[in-house]
C-alpha cells in the first residue's frame, strides 16, 4: 500500500505472525534465526543466513559515515536483532531496536546478553508508526524489510525522519512492487502481510523528498530476489519432513504454497528490492 489505510490492522497481523511459534521455528531452521532478510548471494547455493548477513553489511556501509562509539542508531522493525548486534559490534554505537513482537524481543535480549552486547542495545517493544523517542535523537535510522507490513508508510517515513539528527543518515530495504504493477497482480503473494499492496521505489523517493531528504539513492539488488526465493522454496521443500517435527502442518503447507508464488513474482519482474538511502540536511 503506497498510501494510507489503518496502521492497526497491519500491526495486529504482523504481531500475530511473528509471535507464532511456527514462524519462529521456520526462521530459526531455514533462515538461521539471526538476519531474516532478503539475501545478497555470492552464488546461488549460498546459505540463506550468510546471504542475509551480507545484506546487513551492505546497509551498514551506507550508514558508516555517521556511526561510531559516540553515535546512536534506531533499528525499526528489528526482528531477532541481527542488524542491531552487527551495528553495535562493528561500530561500537548504541542501538535502540524497536519491534512489535514481544516473542522476538525476548529472544533478541537473551542473545544480546549472551554475546555481551546488552549494554549497547536497548530493545523496545513498540510501533514504528509512533516512535517513542524525541525529535532529532539519532545519528542514523535503519530498517530491513519491515515497512512492507505498514498500513501507513508515509507516517513511518515521517517518524523515521523526525527522529534523525541534522545530517543524520537513513537506510532501509523493503520488498517493493515494480513501477505500474497493479496491486491485484501481487495480492496472492502479499496476502499474509496484512496490507493490500506494496510500495514502489518511486513512492519512497517522492515521500523522502517531501520530508526534506533530497537525492534519495537506490542500490538496486532486485536480481537477488529470484535466487533468494528459489533458495527458500527449495530448502523448505527439501526439508519438509524434518521441519514437520518443529512446524505445524498447516503453516508448513502454507509455506510450500506461498514461497513459490513470491519466486514466480520475482521471475516475472513484478518485484523490486534493494537499499534506499538518504540523509537529513544540516
Annotation, overall tally of beta strands:
7
The total count of helices amounts to: 11
Distance between the termini: 31 Å
Strand content: 15-25%
Task: Give a quick account of the main beta sheet: strands, pairing sense, barrel closure.
Answer: 7 strands, mixed
Averaged pLDDT: 93
Class per helix and strand makeup: alpha/beta
Fraction of residues in helices? 40-55%
H-E string: HHHEHEHEEHEHHEHHHE
Spatial shape: globular
**Rg computed from alpha carbons, rounded to a whole number of angstroms:** 18 Å
Q: Which strand order do you get reading across the main beta sheet?
A: 3-2-1-4-5-7-6
Q: Which oligomeric form is depicted?
A: single chain
- Low-pLDDT regions: none
Brief description of this entry?
The protein is an alpha/beta fold. It has helices at residues 7-18, 21-29, 48-63, 82-91, 102-114, 153-162, 183-190, 201-210, 224-238, 240-243, 249-267; strands at 72-76, 94-99, 121-125, 138-144, 164-177, 217-220, 271-279.
How would you describe the overall organization of this protein?
- This protein has 282 residues and is α/β, with parallel strands linked by helices.
- Helix content is 45%, strand content 18%.
- The protein contains 11 helices and 7 strands.
- The protein has a 7-stranded mixed β-sheet, sandwiched between helices.
- Helix 9 (224-238) packs antiparallel against helix 11 (249-267).
- The longest helix is centred in the C-terminal third of the chain and has 19 residues, at 249-267.
- The two termini are 31 Å apart.
- The model has no long low-confidence stretch (mean pLDDT 93).
